[in-house]
Fold this sequence. Notes:
Elements: H1 2-5, H2 13-40, H3 56-76, H4 80-98, H5 104-123, H6 130-146
Helix pairs in contact: 2-3, 2-5, 3-4, 4-5
Amino acid sequence: MKKLLSVEAGGNALHLAALFVRIAAAALMLSHGLPKLSYLFSGSPIQFPEVFGMRSDVSLMLTVFAEVICSVFILFGLGTRLAVIPLIITMLVAVLLIHSADPFAKQEPGIQYLILYVILFITGSGKYSVDYLLQRKQQAGIVWINR
């Protein structure tokens, strides 16, 4: 009971939380991005919102990049802080421009994703990630060079 009421995140708790958030956010976003990827390569005329003066096909390509490519990077924890930046921008555009006139219920999923991506930007990928393995390898190389 004492551990449940503790405000300290001990041991691997933060790393496990980052892993869980990474996997959940990536998997859920891929469910939005993969259909857009299929649509992009379907050969059908592209009907997608034009944002910031970009043509609809460019807007769709940038959205696919964020929702698919960046989500895969986040899933594995590779360049996580960099990978969430396009997704944060995409969610801000979705909430503030695309769904600005819609009721809150339509904006809420974008806001929820935005919260997850900001958390990942702040925390990073944690030690259960490719980022962590690369960082350890780099630090080991630096130690070896300094000997």
